[in-house]
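Tokens as discussed.
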């Protein structure tokens, strides 16, 4: 029986105790991969390298790059053939500064060359198959090793340890996975994954009518932290606040990732939990990561991979993020175009936390999530427009044609015509005075196939305005 049949058809029909048993079984298996000897060793190393100087970091990365490029050239057919055709050899890449000599690897390259990206010297039994549905719904297949999974988890736990949370701490994980069947009408709206010390709460059950039971459950336990997508934890905070419910034993920290945290989400989650909110940025392909330090600045997790920023347009501080991963020998991703953009801190500036790894001011999300104004500016973030819009529950900006946008909005009870006028004024003030604004009031905002919330959705038809992320990209060599 295939795993998907089990997950999609059998699991939802099981009684709750058997669903918990299934979560336990899954958790036990996952715990072995995530938290074995490799994890322990990696975490020790990460705690040690955390305070390295810029020179030490550079030497480490240069050595890693030389090793990675040689490995890819000797063992990975895709890289060998592509680089050979460009007359590139491992000797050309001696340091981090040489990376731009190598071509960019797009998602489409990975889709079309999945088998040829597998390293021939890694035993098949070491490969774990992974796929991501991505925000566009186009599947991406790849492989990781168990050692790479453990390395990734060590990076994530180092982030949590910066805020005083130790491995093994009990937590509530807010997930888009359907661990609680969608049609369930009575509690429990959660399942236990005890081997990983977590309770799983699904976004589908964080509704106004069920929120009472959910908060009662959270109050009956002692969770040291919450983790999950910011948009899901935001739903919890919103519904509970509206119902006048409070957390009796709030978590010490809330760790988010996978989506951009928007200002209004941060405001509501902070107010409801009173906890420290800390974010990390990564991709499911396990090749690059950046995590908040106690100053809430994103630092590249330089031991895990290199993040490069490639200019999108002259004058635009946001750069396209390329990742080169050090963890996954089985399926190396070199200069992989993740499809997100970020703004780096100027070279040479230092963070008050004392870490010397490169820092990002912000991560702006997907490259193609932007609105084009009549003036030609690309706007990726609208959250400052809604900073004071207290009667707005959730909002998504959609652009279907040039010159106008649709504000898709879920209202709070107090919302009225004055709010609408104020939002229009703010958009004209901050975004463009010539942009036509339409309002569409909805009960909820639909998530992407992978459960992610997109704050800005571009549906422009013209191909030259569309994203380059999913389109085939011509050979790019920046020599
Ligand atoms: Zn810092």
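Sequence:
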């Amino acid at each position: 029986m295939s795993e998907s049949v089990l997950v999609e058809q059998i699991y939802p029909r099981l009684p709750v105790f058997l669903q918990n048993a299934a979560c336990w079984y899954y958790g036990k298996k996952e715990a072995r991969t995530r938290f074995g000897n490799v994890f322990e060793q990696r975490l020790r190393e990460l705690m040690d390298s955390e305070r390295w100087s810029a020179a030490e970091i550079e030497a480490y990365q240069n050595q890693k790059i030389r090793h990675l490029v040689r490995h890819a050239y000797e063992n990975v057919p895709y890289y060998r053939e592509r680089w050979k055709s460009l007359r590139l050899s491992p000797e050309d890449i001696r340091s981090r500064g040489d990376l731009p000599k190598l071509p960019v690897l797009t998602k489409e390259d990975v889709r079309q060359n999945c088998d040829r990206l597998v390293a021939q010297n890694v035993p098949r039994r070491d490969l774990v198959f992974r796929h991501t549905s991505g925000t566009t719904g186009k599947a991406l297949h790849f492989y990781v090793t168990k050692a790479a999974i453990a390395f990734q988890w060590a990076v994530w736990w180092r982030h949590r340890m910066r805020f005083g949370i130790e491995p093994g701490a009990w937590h509530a994980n807010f997930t888009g996975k359907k661990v609680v069947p969608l049609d369930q009408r009575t509690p429990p709206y959660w399942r236990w994954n005890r081997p990983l010390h977590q309770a799983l709460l699904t976004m589908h059950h964080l509704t106004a009518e069920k929120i009472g039971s959910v908060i009662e459950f959270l109050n009956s336990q002692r969770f040291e932290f919450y983790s999950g997508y910011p948009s899901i934890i935001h739903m919890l905070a919103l519904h509970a606040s509206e119902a006048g419910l409070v957390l009796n034993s709030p978590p010490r920290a809330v760790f988010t990732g996978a989506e951009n945290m928007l200002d209004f989400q941060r405001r509501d989650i902070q107010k409801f939990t009173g906890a420290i909110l800390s974010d990390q940025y990564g991709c499911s392909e396990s090749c690059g990561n950046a995590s908040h330090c106690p100053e809430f600045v994103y630092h590249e997790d330089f031991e895990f991979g290199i993040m490069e920023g490639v200019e999108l347009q002259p004058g635009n501080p946001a750069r396209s993020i390329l990742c080169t991963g050090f963890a996954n020998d089985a399926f190396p991703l070199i200069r992989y175009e993740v499809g997100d953009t970020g703004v780096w801190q100027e070279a040479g500036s230092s963070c008050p936390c004392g870490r010397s790894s490169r820092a990002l001011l912000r991560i702006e999300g997907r490259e193609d999530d932007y609105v084009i104004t009549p003036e030609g500016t690309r706007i990726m973030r609208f959250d400052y427009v809604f900073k004071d819009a207290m009667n707005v529950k959730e909002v998504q900006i959609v652009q279907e044609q040039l010159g106008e946008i649709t504000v898709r909005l879920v209202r709070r009870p107090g919302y009225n015509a004055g709010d609408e006028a104020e939002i229009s004024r703010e958009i004209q003030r901050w975004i463009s005075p010539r942009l036509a604004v339409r309002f569409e009031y909805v009960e909820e905002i639909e998530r992407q196939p992978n459960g992610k919330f997109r704050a800005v959705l571009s549906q422009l038809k013209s191909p030259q305005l569309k994203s380059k992320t999913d389109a085939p990209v011509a050979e790019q060599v920046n020599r």
